[in-house]
Specification:
43% helix; four-stranded antiparallel sheet; 9 helices; alpha+beta; 12% strand
Length: 209
């Protein structure tokens, strides 16, 4: 399937078939693809939480304003912003880059200091906002990858982050839930799968200069 056809095939799935599960090898492929998401400085200030636990998925319905996708989906992906992006985190990242690119230790020291200066000047609120914006870049990758792999998905902002954090113990991992993406396969009786995809015409969306 061409990428354009895959994107036309996808939709925000409103009803999943709970009997159809995504194979773990496909989930792993999805995660491998999503891990290639570009981020500012390459710092990847988020983690992917993969939930496949029916008891917890059922528990999340109330914290998702009654949306059953979180319970009926094969898996639920939560993109959670890291709250531990500090000087030590950046130094560890730089050391990893130097090692994997076979660079001499200290080669990136100047760039490291630039990143530390940029990040540490932010207030905690600004840093959280920045990390959340990076998570949204990952969301785009997830949705495109799901379409390519013929996995149904439903991106959700309609949930209560603090309750997700508590139910999934995310704060102990220095994480804050930003986005929720149930994945699986659409139910045959999900009527919304037949809706015409509506987008503004390309002539209204593009300015050529």
């Amino acid at each position: 399937m061409k990428f354009s056809d895959a994107m036309r095939w996808r939709y925000a799935t409103k009803k999943f078939d709970p009997q159809k599960l995504v194979d773990e090898t496909v989930v792993d492929e999805l995660l491998d693809i999503t891990n290639l998401t570009p981020t500012s400085y390459g710092l990847q200030p988020f983690k992917f939480v993969v939930l496949k636990n029916q008891e917890l998925q059922d528990k999340l319905i109330t914290s998702s304003y009654g949306q059953r996708q979180v319970a009926d989906a094969s898996h639920v992906l939560i993109i959670a912003a890291r709250t531990d992006v500090d000087a030590n985190y950046i130094r560890e990242y730089v050391a990893m880059v130097e090692s994997q690119r076979n660079l001499a230790e200290g080669t990136m020291q100047e760039y490291c200091q630039v990143m530390i200066g940029s990040m540490t000047r932010m207030s905690p609120e600004s840093l959280n906002h920045w990390a959340a914006k990076q998570a949204y870049i990952a969301l785009g990758t997830v949705m495109a990858a799901c379409a390519t792999l013929q996995i149904d998905a439903c991106p959700m902002e309609g949930f209560i982050p603090q309750e997700y954090n508590e139910i999934l113990n995310l704060e102990q991992h220095q994480l804050n839930a930003v986005l929720v993406i149930p994945i699986g396969y659409r139910a045959d009786d999900d009527a919304t799968q037949h809706n015409q995809k509506v987008r503004r015409p390309i002539t209204d969306m593009v300015i050529r200069i």
